[in-house]
Write a structure and sequence with these properties.
Length: 284
C-alpha cells in the first residue's frame, strides 16, 4: 500500500504595499528627474537670460515657477541646477566608492600590518570633521564644478572603506574562500572572483548613501558660497541665492530644497531595494 505524499504549497509571501509603493514612487521620481536633466538642452529653456522688467514675478503660463531677482525663468534655473547637482553626486560617488572599495578590500583581505596601517589612516581622516576638510580644501582650490567633485570624492570614502573591510573580514573566513587560497589561487583572483561579488550588497548600500551625502555636501557648500559659482547653478546655489528673498518669494527656496530632499530620499529607498535584491540572489 502506497502512502500518497502530500506536498504543501508554500504560503505566498505577503508583500508590503507601503514598501512597494515607496520603491515605485522613488524609481518614477528619479527617472523623471534624470530624464529631464539629460534632455534639458533639447527643451525650450533659457536659464541665463535676464529681464529686469519681469523680475520677482509669480508663477504664470509664461513662467511656471515665476522669475528670480534678475528676471530669469526659475523653472529653467531649477532644471539646469538639477543637472549640476546630479552630476556632482554621481561622479563624487564613483570616485569615493572606488577608493573606499579598494582600501576596504585590501585591508580586510591582507590583514596584519597592511590592515593596521590603512585603518589608522582611515581613523586619522575620520577624526577630522568632514565638513572642515571639504571647506578648507575648497578655500585653497579654485571654486568650481570639478573642484567640488574632486574634494567630495577624496574626503568621503572612509565610511565605505570601513564597511567593505568588515564585510571582507567575514567573507575571508568562508569555506570556499579558504579553499581557493588553499589550491593556490592568487589573492587578486580570490578577491575579484569570490569576495567582491558577495560584498556587492554592502557596496551598493554604501554607494547610495555616498551619492546622497555628496548631493547634500554640494548643497551645503554652495549655500555657503564655496561650491558652484555663478552663472552656473545647482540646487544648493539656488538655495543660497533665495535666502535673501524668503519673505518676497518663498517659492525660490522651497522648490530646490524640496527637490534635494526628495532626490536624496529616493536614492536611499532604491539603494535599500537593490541591496535586498542582490542579497537574495547571492544567497540562492
Amino acid at each position: 500500500m502506497t502512502v500518497p505524499v502530500i506536498i504543501d504549497d508554500p504560503k505566498p509571501r505577503r508583500t508590503r504595499p507601503l514598501r512597494s509603493a515607496s520603491e515605485i514612487a522613488a524609481a518614477v521620481f528619479l527617472t523623471l528627474v534624470i530624464a529631464i536633466s539629460i534632455l534639458a538642452p533639447l527643451l525650450p529653456l533659457d536659464p541665463d537670460t535676464t529681464d529686469l522688467a519681469i523680475r520677482w514675478q509669480g508663477p504664470s503660463a509664461a513662467h511656471l515657477l515665476g522669475t528670480d531677482d534678475v528676471g530669469r525663468d526659475y523653472l529653467s534655473r531649477v532644471i539646469y541646477g538639477g543637472r549640476i547637482s546630479l552630476l556632482v553626486g554621481v561622479l563624487a560617488m564613483l570616485a569615493s566608492t572606488a577608493i573606499g572599495v579598494v582600501v576596504g578590500l585590501t585591508a580586510g583581505y591582507a590583514r596584519g600590518w597592511v590592515d593596521e596601517v590603512l585603518m589608522r589612516f582611515v581613523d586619522f581622516l575620520s577624526s577630522i570633521p568632514w565638513m572642515v576638510l571639504v571647506i578648507v580644501a575648497s578655500v585653497f582650490l579654485r571654486p568650481g564644478l570639478w573642484t567640488i567633485i574632486v574634494v567630495i570624492g577624496l574626503f568621503s570614502w572612509m565610511p565605505t572603506a570601513r564597511l567593505v573591510r568588515a564585510e571582507t573580514l567575514s567573507l575571508r573566513e568562508r569555506t570556499y574562500v579558504g579553499y581557493a587560497r588553499f589550491v593556490g589561487e592568487r589573492a587578486r583572483t580570490v578577491i575579484c572572483r569570490h569576495v567582491l561579488p558577495d560584498a556587492l550588497p554592502t557596496i551598493i548600500v554604501a554607494a547610495t548613501a555616498t551619492i546622497s551625502a555628496a548631493m547634500l555636501t554640494e548643497s551645503a557648500l554652495s549655500f555657503l558660497g564655496l561650491g558652484i559659482q555663478p552663472p552656473m547653478a545647482s540646487w544648493g546655489s539656488l538655495l543660497e541665492s533665495a535666502q535673501g528673498s524668503l519673505a518676497r518669494s518663498p517659492l525660490l527656496a522651497v522648490v530646490p530644497g524640496l527637490l534635494v530632499m526628495l532626490t536624496v530620499l529616493s536614492f536611499n529607498v532604491l539603494g535599500d531595494a537593490l541591496r535586498r535584491k542582490v542579497s537574495e540572489e547571492t544567497t540562492v
